[in-house]
Amino acid sequence: MLDILPHDGGIHEIRMARAPVNAFDIHLVRALREAIVEAPSNGARGIVLSGAQGMFSAGVDVPALIQRDRAGVQEFWNEFFALCGAIAASSVPTVAAVTGHSPAGGAVVSLFCDYRIMAHGPYKIGLNEVQVGLSVPEPIQFAMRRIVGNYRAERLLVAGAMVDAEQAHAIGLVDELATVEQVVQRAVIWMTDILKLPPKAMLRTRAIARADLVAVWGDTTDLLDPGFIDDFFADETQGVLRALVARLKSR
């Protein structure tokens, strides 16, 4: 489900390895959060979050999620928010090595990292929740606005837009592009350069710069709006999600 790969200089790569497309079920979400939280105590000075070549993460495992009752769906989203909060509040720098397609939950997770490097080419990224019948909660919208600005975030979120790597780079949704084979290597190089800086000054400045993000995401206990769960079980959303699952099963 996860591979923990050490690199020189105290850099830990946490690679998602849940076949076939690194879709987030509750087990992957919990494992990833635990790995991120425990990494500093295991000697990590920086974290690279990666996926498979061609597919960073396909987002939430919708076929698994729609089998859950209301309590189970709420449990999943609380765990997913806790994962995002753990990345936001990480005491060490994090970089998302977006190794391929990254729709929905995959894109969301990347927002909370310090830096994003994406594979260029035929790969897309975006918060396409609206296209599959889901609204985007305000705390996630906040994280998106923080990266690309208010108006750009509004246009992308309301349309549920997926953009290719080059456009994502142009609008600042990702910071850098590399070949799919070199995304992780570039992420490690970026992290190596950050860790060469005087550590106290770098970490203190980082904490100040990310204080707005931590203020929202540092404690996710009551962050999930119950209305989001109501929306999830609405007829419109359930119809779109079940049609999506049917298409996936027919492939």
TrEMBL record:
Superkingdom to which the source organism belongs: Bacteria
Pfam family name, one: ECH_1
Gene3D superfamilies reported in the protein's UniProt record: 2-enoyl-CoA Hydratase, Chain A, domain 1
A single GO molecular function term of this UniProt record: catalytic activity
InterPro entries: ClpP/crotonase-like_dom_sf, Enoyl-CoA_hyd/isom_CS, Enoyl-CoA_hydra/iso
GO terms under biological process: fatty acid beta-oxidation
Database matches in PROSITE patterns: ENOYL_COA_HYDRATASE
N-terminal signal peptide: none
Family under the similarity heading: Belongs to the enoyl-CoA hydratase/isomerase family.
Name by which UniProt lists this protein: Enoyl-CoA hydratase
Organism from which the protein derives: Luteibacter rhizovicinus DSM 16549
Lineage start: Bacteria, Pseudomonadati, Pseudomonadota, Gammaproteobacteria, Lysobacterales
